Amino acid sequence: MKLEKEDLAYYAKVHSIESFGTVDGPGIRFVLFLQGCHLQCKYCHNRDTWDINGGSYRSLDEIFEKILKYQNYIQPNGGVTVTGGEPLLQVHFLISLFQKLKAVGIHTCIDTSGMVAITKEIETLLSLTDLVLLDIKHIDNEKCKALVGVGNTLELKFARYLSDHGIATWIRQVIVPGFTDDKEDLLKLKEFIASLKTVEKVELLPYHDMGAYKWKKLGGTYALENTRPATSQDIARCQAILNATTTAN
């Protein structure tokens, strides 16, 4: 199936759907995983979402009707979260979907790296978005580039846009031992977060290697083969650094 430009608002390339999510935003969530990602995160556990030619096309009406079947479960405290891959690569479809969701009072959330330019379409989408889960890949530009293939300039600008336009934000960072757990980097992260006005929550997510088999299945090399998963002690140490900085401020 080949889509014309005018079809982009009515069809999405979908990787998978989770109808009872509990970790991607508040309450019980209908979670839509979109196909396609322009980053190359070394720790990615959804390596099979990268290729935009993967997944399958689903229509706007099909997805919306499926969401409505779960409306009684996800409301009033939950909603719909769109993740990926990188969902903002399919912005035209998301505008159409979120317009329909807002019309029936369903909470909308996007889980994104924010590694995109702020276009008119992105602005329109964000005006329809109740919450953004923003994954800060790394606060240091060069380390970010080494870890995910791209520097952090766009995602930090994206965070500023959310703050300046009153859009509720949860900041997330994956704690990868030896990569994102440096004390000085965490202090810089805290300083940046403190400069934002709409951050409601900061989540430190422990790195795990459960997606390594997907890399191998696709014929790739898993770069973090010798990196240990983050422990609860790692998370507690990093959280303590952030909390201590808060106290100091």
Q: Major sheet, described briefly? A: 8 strands, mixed
**What portion of residues belong to β-strands?**
15-25%
CATH fold name = TIM Barrel
Taking all Cα atoms into account, the compactness measure Rg is: 18 Å
List segments where confidence is low: pLDDT < 50 over at least 5 consecutive residues.
Answer: 245-249
Helix content: 25-40%
Distance between the termini: 55 Å
Order of helices and strands: EEEHHEHEHEHHEHEHH
Q: How many helices in DSSP terms?
A: 9
Mean pLDDT score: 94
Describe the structure.
Helix content is 36%, strand content 21%. The N and C termini lie far apart (55 Å). The model is unreliable at 245-249 (pLDDT under 50). It has an 8-stranded mixed β-sheet with strand order 3-1-2-4-5-6-7-8. It has helices at residues 60-69, 71-74, 91-103, 120-127, 141-148, 153-164, 183-194, 212-217, 232-248, and strands at residues 11-21, 29-34, 56-59, 79-83, 107-112, 131-135, 169-175, 199-206. The chain is globular and about 45 Å long. The protein has one domain: TIM Barrel. The protein contains 9 helices and 8 strands. The protein is α/β, with parallel strands linked by helices and 249 residues long. Helix 7 packs across helix 9.
Describe the protein's topology.
Elements: E1 11-21, E2 29-34, E3 56-59, H1 60-69, H2 71-74, E4 79-83, H3 91-103, E5 107-112, H4 120-127, E6 131-135, H5 141-148, H6 153-164, E7 169-175, H7 183-194, E8 199-206, H8 212-217, H9 232-248
Parallel strand pairs: 2-4, 4-5, 5-6, 6-7, 7-8
Antiparallel strand pairs: 1-2, 1-3
